[in-house]
Amino acid sequence: MDPAVVVILAALIGAAASIAATALTMLWTARQAAIHQAREEAAALRTEKRSAYRDIIHALDAMKARATLQSGHRVGSPS
Question: pTM for this one?
């Protein structure tokens, strides 16, 4: 085989390897970004869930206090 052909083939193989490595790096980076975004969204949802539970507890406590006042009993006193 002609040495010039060997050099050209080696250059093409090197270029193809470089392109493949760049493509794999881009895919990996995109995947990492998607994972990071999903984690951030999950954390935000957990925060919203905690806030909603807290609101429910406050509402239930307020209902209990209102019912206790309407029944004429003091909160914390024996019936």
Answer: 0.59
